[in-house]
């Protein structure tokens, strides 16, 4: 009770301070106070509500019974839009602040909002090794259920609040992607409501053009209402090896080598400077050495990226056994390393022991409360980008990131990119090994200017036939965008399915050049 009482007293003092200083001043200059006193408790309440709701729904098996009714309601909304003259584009009615993307979707105010209340796990079929889910099911829901019954997704992206719909319509990746590819590559079927209100199911063999065109389309071909995803048997722990590596050439060689070894279930790198990194490789196992067990997801534990950095500072290799679900969400508590900019003392042992059980704040609530002034400051002085480049270009790419934005740590995650139709595929006809380079934080280059620096980075990514994740700010013009992405199948289907008057083109939905 003592932490709760202390929090209540601090909240009262904070309200008095806000009254004197003004809310905008506090949100910009002392945001950690607002986050600690209000957003952390509110985020905890959100988490408890959605966890209990998902558990009750699954136990009562109510989701499958209600699913068809909800899909019919979506079809009805679309048909009513057509009957009313199709005057504006359509989009989902989910508020923009609820998404994990940092981008503010202004189109929600001008488009016809179709309400899609689909947030449940419909079925787990262990014989077929498939889980069928609705689009708003989160990764937190998926891991909580599947790991409890001994199963998991082959690719389970990191943050709890990422949804299946977002990972399909955008993309998703995890440290197992060197074996299984991106999130879209473990999906076996999509169910959609199209622009005319009709329902369609697509697989690699049924309506295959649509199946391959849906990923990365950002909801501009239809409304996703369900997806079928592969599952694999899970084990209790991840046996994780930590190896500090120095020198850029050695880092690239080691990372590439480990990414090509399919006996590694997981491969990940954290780059702390241009020539210092820790490469991690892991395998699932049911056995653990008790002295090397590390429950890294416990609220009082150090943030994962700080824990990893200790291996670099002490220049030693390490071996740990981490519970599987905690491994999957190892970066969640610190939102990778973004939380250190919001709560500078968040990794302090005292804070972790007293308030760590409420961390992290919901990204959606951070967006909701940031205000226009803070949003513009973040846009100009903060980078959140994932660039996907061929592994053979890793050294060149890291030099470019260092020179153009100079943000550390950098996340390195390998993935296999098969030669399949759609917006994203290798340049040739063969499967190719790529790497996701994730940069999140404050740039440390002189005279950083967001638009010019990011356009320079985007130009490099295009030149090596790489791709930019579309959750982030994108500064390309239309011609540059379609140079990066293969729009041939996408445009064919938009015309064929009557999407041109129903949904904006993906470029117009996500690129800053189109939205401003």
Automatic annotation (TrEMBL):
PROSITE patterns: FAD_PCMH. GO terms for molecular function: Delta24(24-1) sterol reductase activity; Delta24-sterol reductase activity; FAD binding. It is a single-pass membrane protein. It catalyses: 5alpha-cholest-8-en-3beta-ol + NADP(+) = zymosterol + NADPH + H(+); lanosterol + NADPH + H(+) = 24,25-dihydrolanosterol + NADP(+). One of its GO terms (cellular component) is endoplasmic reticulum membrane. Its cofactor is FAD. Its EC number is 1.3.1.72. InterPro entries: Diminuto-like, FAD-bd_PCMH, FAD-bd_PCMH-like_sf, FAD-bd_PCMH_sub2, Oxid_FAD_bind_N. It is found in: Endoplasmic reticulum membrane; Golgi apparatus membrane. The chain crosses the membrane at residues 32-52. GO terms for biological process: cholesterol biosynthetic process. It comes from the Eukaryota. Pfam families: FAD_binding_4. Residues 58-234 form the FAD-binding PCMH-type domain. Pathway: Steroid biosynthesis; cholesterol biosynthesis. Keywords: Cholesterol biosynthesis, Cholesterol metabolism, Endoplasmic reticulum, FAD, Flavoprotein, Golgi apparatus, Lipid biosynthesis, Lipid metabolism, Membrane, NADP, Oxidoreductase, Signal, Steroid biosynthesis, Steroid metabolism, Sterol biosynthesis, Sterol metabolism, Transmembrane, Transmembrane helix. It is an enzyme of class 1 (oxidoreductase). Belongs to the FAD-binding oxidoreductase/transferase type 4 family. Catalyzes the reduction of the delta-24 double bond of sterol intermediates during cholesterol biosynthesis. In addition to its cholesterol-synthesizing activity, can protect cells from oxidative stress by reducing caspase 3 activity during apoptosis induced by oxidative stress. Also protects against amyloid-beta peptide-induced apoptosis. This is Delta(24)-sterol reductase. The gene is Dhcr24.
């Amino acid at each position: 009770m003592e932490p709760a009482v202390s929090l209540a007293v601090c909240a009262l003092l904070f309200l008095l301070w806000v009254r004197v200083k003004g809310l905008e001043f506090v949100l910009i200059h002392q945001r950690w106070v607002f986050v600690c006193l209000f957003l952390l408790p509110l985020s905890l309440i959100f988490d408890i509500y959605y966890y209990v709701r998902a558990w009750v729904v699954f136990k009562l098996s109510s989701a499958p019974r209600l699913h068809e009714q909800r899909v019919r309601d979506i079809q009805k909304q679309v048909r009513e839009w057509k009957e009313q003259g199709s005057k504006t584009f359509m989009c989902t009615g989910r508020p923009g602040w609820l998404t994990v993307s940092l981008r503010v979707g202004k189109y929600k105010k001008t488009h016809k909002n179709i309400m899609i209340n689909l947030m449940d796990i419909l079925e787990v079929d262990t014989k077929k090794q498939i889980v069928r889910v609705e689009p708003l099911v989160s990764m937190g829901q998926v891991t909580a259920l599947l790991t409890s019954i001994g199963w998991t997704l082959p690719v389970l992206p990191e943050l709890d609040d990422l949804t299946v719909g977002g990972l399909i319509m955008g993309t998703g990746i995890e440290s197992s992607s060197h074996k299984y590819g991106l999130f879209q590559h473990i999906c076996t079927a999509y169910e959609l409501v199209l622009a005319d209100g009709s329902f369609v199911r697509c697989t690699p063999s049924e309506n295959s053009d649509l199946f391959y065109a849906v990923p990365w389309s950002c909801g501009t071909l239809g409304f996703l209402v369900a997806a079928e995803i592969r599952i694999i048997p899970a084990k209790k722990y991840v046996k994780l090896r930590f190896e500090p590596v120095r020198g850029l050439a050695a880092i690239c060689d080691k990372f590439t080598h480990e990414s090509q070894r399919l006996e590694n279930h997981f491969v990940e790198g954290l780059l702390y400077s241009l020539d210092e990194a820790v490469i991690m490789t892991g395998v699932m196992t049911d056995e653990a050495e008790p002295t090397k067990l590390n429950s890294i997801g416990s609220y009082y534990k150090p943030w994962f990226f700080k824990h990893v950095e200790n291996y670099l500072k002490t220049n030693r290799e390490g071996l740990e056994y981490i519970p599987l679900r905690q491994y999957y969400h190892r970066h969640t508590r610190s939102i990778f390393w973004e939380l250190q900019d919001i709560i500078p003392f968040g990794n302090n042992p005292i804070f972790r022991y007293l308030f760590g059980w409420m961390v992290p704040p919901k990204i959606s609530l951070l967006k909701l409360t940031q205000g226009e002034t803070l949003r513009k400051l973040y846009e100009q002085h903060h980078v959140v980008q994932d660039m996907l480049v061929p592994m053979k270009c890793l050294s060149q790419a890291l030099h470019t990131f260092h020179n153009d934005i100079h943000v550390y740590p950098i996340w390195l995650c390998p993935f296999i990119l098969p030669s399949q139709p759609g917006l994203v595929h290798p340049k040739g006809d063969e499967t190719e090994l790529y790497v996701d380079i994730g940069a999140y934080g404050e740039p440390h280059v002189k005279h950083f200017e967001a638009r010019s620096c990011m356009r320079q980075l985007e130009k490099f990514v295009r030149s090596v036939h790489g791709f930019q994740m579309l959750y982030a700010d994108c500064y390309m013009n239309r011609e540059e965008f379609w140079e990066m992405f293969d729009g041939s199948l996408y445009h064919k289907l938009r015309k064929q399915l009557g999407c041109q008057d129903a949904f904006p083109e993906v470029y117009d939905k996500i690129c800053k050049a189109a939205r401003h």
